[in-house]
Amino acid sequence: MRGLIRPLRFLLFSVPLFLLWEFAARQPYLSLLAAVFAFSARIFGQDVHVAGVADGNIRLEYGATGWVDQFGLTGINIVALAALVLATGPVTWGRRLRMLGAGAGLLFLTQIAGLWTDLVHVHLHANPSGAAFANALRNFMTSFGTFFFPLLIWLWLVRDHLPLGAARPAP
Length: 171
What we know:
Blueprint: H1 7-43, E1 48-54, E2 57-62, E3 65-70, H2 71-75, H3 77-86, H4 93-125, H5 131-157
Helix pairs in contact: 1-3, 1-4, 3-4, 3-5, 4-5
């Protein structure tokens, strides 16, 4: 595992990726994410519509209920994942790009799942006895998705470089 992540390379990738995200990619990415989520919800008979995407917020409507998913912070996990993958040391650039594609796809799917928890939140919040659970579920998914999903996905992508199950020297 030694040298698996190059800290300076991580920093050198993080800053430009963040700027690219903030000034060029955030709006189109979140618009695509919202559209795919709404489409998937309609496939399963849930009448969800995108009311708008602006400033990192996705406004959704479901029946008479509307809500805003403040996706700006959560969406930045794509920057963290990309920087981790690109700063990974002992792999070729071709493999890094394949890892980035697979990781970004998996992260996109987890973000869609996170938006589905919003729909569950709306359903549970309609019942006062479910409000506390609904709030806890949403907070858990937001926190987990923002901070841990990129790291877990990266660990899965580099699993063959981790010293898992390596033979231990005899005592």
